[in-house]
Amino acid sequence: MTTPPEPPWFPIRTERLLLRKLRADDHDDMHAYASDPDTVRFMEWGPNTPEVTRERMAFVLDQQTRWPRDTVDLAVELVAARRMIGSISLRRDGQGGADFGYCFGSQWWRHGYGFEAARALVATAFETLLLHRVWATCDVRNAGSIAVLEKLGMQREGTLRKNLLVRDGWRDTHVYGLLAEEWSAR
Ligand SMILES: CC(C)(COP(=O)(O)OP(=O)(O)OC[C@H]1O[C@@H](n2cnc3c(N)ncnc32)[C@H](O)[C@@H]1OP(=O)(O)O)[C@@H](O)C(=O)NCCC(=O)NCCS
């Protein structure tokens, strides 16, 4: 007897956002933030050339044809504007946990969208996927990301020193984690 296929756990609807599959017509919205140096300052990639954005889109669209898969990259759409304002990803780590990451265009910062999207993803990770640990990493200088992760109730578990060589040199990285029991007790 074969196991029935696992249903996808997305799209996810929140109060203002839709976390959904990427579409080919998201290209311009994606390139707008992925090519912006301010937006990608703490990312390991970017700022994208048009070609790199096209390659990234092609990669994700192809990835979306496969299910199940460990890595899910979702577009974050601001429903009222019908625009993709950023992206969020969950990657199952093979140990019953997953890490996640996000990136929103700088014009959309400080409206609560980052936290709203991340909270919905973490809720899905614990309550639908029944993972036991969710974790994330961020550059030690990334005050916005630190604020989102700590608002989610994540604990800083350590700091990796000079573990990443990106554009402007070696970077230090905080590791944040949250356990299922901490999520349910919050
Ligand atoms: C990090 C990021 C996702 C934050 O998203 P956002 O939508 O601006 O965050 P929110 O508006 O949901 O804010 C959540 C909390 O963080 C705080 N915050 C957001 N940006 C902040 C900053 N730069 N400095 C200090 N606090 C900040 C907010 O005040 C809010 O706290 P409050 O509710 O107590 O007021 C966004 O800045 C981003 O996409 N940056 C570029 C990509 C990136 O660096 N990704 C992370 C890689 S690890």
In short:
With 186 residues, the protein is of the alpha+beta class. The protein is built from 5 helices and 8 strands; from the N terminus they run E-E-H-H-E-E-E-H-E-H-E-E-H.
Instruction: State the secondary-structure class.
Output: alpha+beta
Instruction: Give the CATH H-level superfamily.
Output: Gcn5-related N-acetyltransferase (GNAT)
The number of E-state strands comes to 8
Using the CA coordinates, give the radius of gyration: 16 Å
What's the overall geometry?
A: globular
Q: In percent, how much strand structure appears in the residues?
A: 25-35%
Please state the oligomeric state of the protein chains shown.
single chain
**Range of helix content:** 25-40%
What are the distinct ligands in this entry? Answer: coenzyme A
* SSE order: EEHHEEEHEHEEH
| Sheet with the most strands, sense and barrel status | 8 strands, mixed
How many H/I helices? 5
Give me the CATH fold name. Answer: Aminopeptidase
- CATH architecture, by name, is 3-Layer(aba) Sandwich
Write the SSE topology:
Blueprint: E1 12-13, E2 17-20, H1 27-34, H2 50-63, E3 71-78, E4 83-92, E5 97-104, H3 113-127, E6 133-139, H4 143-151, E7 155-166, E8 169-179, H5 180-184
Parallel strand pairs: 5-6
Antiparallel strand pairs: 1-2, 2-3, 3-4, 4-5, 6-8, 7-8
Helix pairs in contact: 1-2
Coenzyme A is lined by residues 39, 42-43, 86, 101-104, 109-115, 138, 142-145, 147-148, 151.
